[in-house]
Amino acid sequence: MGVEGRDRVKxxxxxxxxxxxxxxxxxxxxRKAYSLSLSELSEQSGVAKSIISxxxxxxxxxxxxxxxxxxxxxDVSIERVLQTAEDEPFLAKTSRGDTPILVSDDGKxxxxxxxxxKTVEWLQWYDFQADxxxxxxxxxxxxxxxxCLSVLDGELEVEVxxxxxxARAGDTLRYRCxxxxxxxxxxxxxxxxxxVVILKAAAME
Length: 205
Known about the structure:
Elements: H1 22-33, H2 38-45, H3 49-56, H4 64-73, H5 78-81, E1 101-103, E2 109-113, E3 123-130, E4 135-138, E5 146-153, E6 155-160, E7 163-168, E8 172-176, E9 181-184, E10 191-198
Antiparallel strand pairs: 1-2, 2-3, 3-10, 4-9, 5-8, 5-10, 6-7, 6-9
Helix pairs in contact: 1-3, 2-3
């Protein structure tokens, strides 16, 4: 499961919360740099004027989909939106409360987005937890994408295009995620894993 552009951001909307603080100031600075009014940016991005205003005042936690739309309308990458000065020391922290969470359709699997938002277009990583019986079904990502699932606790089963493999604590599964893929917890205990999605991996033949 991952985000790979405008066609995939909808998968984040249910549980995603975006970075605050610097984001609002940056959106406002870029908007003014392009001499755009709130109404004009709203029209170009498809994001409501009231939401943009709240973002600029840091009064809301926008979804990743919203951040993506704004970055596209401002003709900059997400990296640019959250860029800091090159000479500044880099030591960033995201609190538990600010970490976006995605939830599977059955409500039994949770993906905490712990990856860096600057790499979201090509590399994503998540903290994955599944209750007993939990199932996470994902649509294909772009061609050549690879997913790496490292199990920390419990046991997980991965199905990719009909192929099945099981991983236990200490095991890592790597598989093409440019095909429909499913992660299941068939055990009676919770499972915990780290998931890394490489969206621009070399095509596998």
